[in-house]
């Protein structure tokens, strides 16, 4: 049985670009978010992880599920899968990379290969719907 990493991510789009974050020591960008703690709901995970990574407060009442994606987990042994529940949501505050994040960037479809495998399907879906250029 394959190992599964259960995550939640914040799909934040502006002007046809998606916000990406690169953790310290990592070679790819990720859609901001992270692993669910035991007993946490999607929205609890989303608000905690985004606050930890980007220092902003997600408005849970504005959250909309974009989709849930599963793929090989980047940097993990073959067969380790990551499942990522993706949401859009409004936020309060200024986007600032926290200590665990080395870099944040606005990514386009052309940056798809600079992201983790699970993000590729998100990029493809957003591009197909005209939301990512």
Task: Provide an overview of this structure.
With 133 residues, this protein is of the alpha+beta class. The protein has one domain: Alpha-Beta Complex (Nucleoside Triphosphate Pyrophosphohydrolase). It is built from 2 helices and 9 strands. Strand 2 (13-14) and strand 3 (17-23) form a beta hairpin. Residues 1-128 form the Nudix hydrolase domain. GO terms for molecular function: hydrolase activity.
Q: What labels would you give this structure?
A:
19% helix, alpha+beta, three-stranded antiparallel β-sheet, 35% strand, 2 helices, four-stranded mixed β-sheet, 133 residues, single chain, Nucleoside Triphosphate Pyrophosphohydrolase
Quickly describe the structure.
The chain has 133 residues and is α+β, with helices and mostly antiparallel strands. The chain has two helices and nine strands. A hairpin with a 2-residue loop joins β2 and β3.
């Amino acid at each position: 049985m394959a190992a599964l990493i259960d995550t939640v991510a914040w799909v934040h789009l502006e002007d046809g670009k998606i916000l990406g974050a690169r953790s310290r020591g990592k070679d790819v960008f990720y859609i901001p978010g992270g692993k669910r703690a035991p007993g946490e709901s999607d929205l609890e995970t989303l608000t905690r992880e985004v606050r930890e990574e980007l220092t902003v407060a997600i408005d849970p009442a504005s959250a909309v599920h974009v989709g849930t994606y599963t793929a090989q987990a980047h940097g993990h042994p073959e067969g380790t899968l990551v499942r990522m529940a993706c949401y859009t949501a409004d936020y309060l505050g200024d986007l600032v990379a926290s200590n665990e994040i080395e870099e944040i960037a606005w990514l386009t479809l052309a940056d798809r290969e600079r992201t983790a495998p699970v993000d590729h399907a998100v990029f493809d879906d957003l591009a197909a719907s005209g939301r990512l250029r």
